[in-house]
């Protein structure tokens, strides 16, 4: 498992900012505007190489041009102005956006921008658990195909990205290889259900691989309603399949039932939160109920079966 990386640099020197940016993104040159406005540059990065989170805050104005390193990258603007253009194709940065490969021009103006990147090889390997092999010739987005599939998909990605940032910047949580593995798998699943990352039509069109498309819709629904009460008919309706069919195709493609998948995702979420929690402030019962586990005894047994320890051991470790 790769070692965890963590860096945080701050400067008010424009030339230093250009060099620091180039060190983080070797294919892109950044030029800070030489004007009378105060300038400040802060760049934070954390992750294990497979999954990296970047936070870039620029007070003032700067322009960049070049090519992003190979990989999957999703950006989000927290405040200020941040423009991205690939020739005449302008990316909509008002919502989370998938960064295509190729040369681009970027403009910062008093902006705070976050970026989540996934190593392409690791992402492709993990994605094969959820996508048919013949749909994976090249997992690279294209200009014009950068937006989330739906507003709900955009919200799902924001929630996942915030959780990733909170986890990788928590030294105790990110020290666990299991936590990093679960986090990476979660980000792969949310990415696949939030963006049109597989070449061709979105999986939602229901034409290329109907069964896999139904599973994808079911997974998207379950991920979006992870902390809510969900019934099997709800999942079947979201998947556009019968109750019997959704159970059959889910077992075939995912290896479990829809509600079994939901339970496992909830257990994963509980574990991530327990690892990052202070036992003097938070109780296991509070976290369990927040993720939909009302029967604490059954929850504890399911948690032990999945992780080999009881939740009280996790929060105290």
From TrEMBL:
Domain (HTH araC/xylS-type) ranges? 216-317
**Which UniProt keywords are given for this protein, alphabetically ordered?**
DNA-binding, Transcription, Transcription regulation
Q: SUPFAM superfamilies in the record, alphabetically?
A: Homeodomain-like
Classification via InterPro entries: AraC_XylS_family_regulators, Homeodomain-like_sf, HTH_AraC
Q: Which Gene3D superfamilies is this protein grouped with?
A: Homeodomain-like
Q: Name one GO molecular function term.
A: DNA-binding transcription factor activity
PANTHER family according to UniProt: HTH-TYPE DNA-BINDING TRANSCRIPTIONAL ACTIVATOR EUTR, HTH-TYPE TRANSCRIPTIONAL ACTIVATOR RHAS-RELATED
The name of this protein is: AraC family transcriptional regulator
Organism (species): Labedella phragmitis
């Amino acid at each position: 498992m790769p070692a965890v990386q963590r860096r945080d640099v701050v400067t008010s020197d424009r030339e230093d900012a250009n060099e620091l940016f180039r060190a983080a993104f070797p294919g892109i040159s950044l030029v800070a505007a030489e004007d009378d406005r105060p300038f400040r540059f802060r760049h934070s990065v954390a992750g294990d190489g497979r999954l990296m989170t970047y936070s870039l805050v620029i007070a003032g104005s700067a322009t960049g041009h070049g090519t992003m390193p190979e990989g999957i990258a999703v950006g989000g603007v927290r405040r200020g102005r941040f423009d991205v253009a690939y020739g005449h194709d302008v990316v909509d940065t008002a919502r989370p956006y998938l960064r295509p490969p190729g040369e681009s021009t970027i403009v910062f103006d008093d902006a705070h921008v976050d970026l989540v990147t996934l190593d392409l090889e690791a992402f492709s390997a993990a994605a094969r658990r959820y996508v048919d092999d013949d749909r994976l010739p090249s997992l690279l987005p294209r200009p014009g195909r950068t937006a989330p599939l739906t507003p709900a998909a955009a919200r799902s990605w924001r929630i996942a990205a915030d959780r990733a940032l909170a986890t990788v910047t928590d030294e105790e949580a990110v020290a666990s290889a299991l936590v990093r593995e679960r986090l990476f798998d979660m980000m792969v699943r949310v990415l696949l259900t939030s963006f049109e990352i597989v070449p061709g039509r979105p999986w939602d069109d229901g034409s290329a691989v109907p069964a896999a498309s139904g599973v994808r819709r079911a997974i998207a629904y379950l991920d979006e309603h992870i902390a809510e009460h969900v019934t099997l008919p709800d999942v079947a309706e979201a998947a556009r399949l019968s109750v019997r069919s959704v159970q059959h195709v889910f077992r075939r493609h995912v290896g479990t039932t829809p509600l079994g998948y939901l339970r496992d995702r909830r257990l994963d979420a509980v574990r991530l939160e327990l690892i990052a929690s202070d036992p003097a402030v938070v109780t296991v019962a509070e976290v369990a109920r927040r993720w939909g586990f009302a029967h604490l005894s059954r929850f504890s047994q399911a948690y032990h079966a999945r992780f080999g320890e009881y939740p009280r051991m996790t929060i105290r470790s």
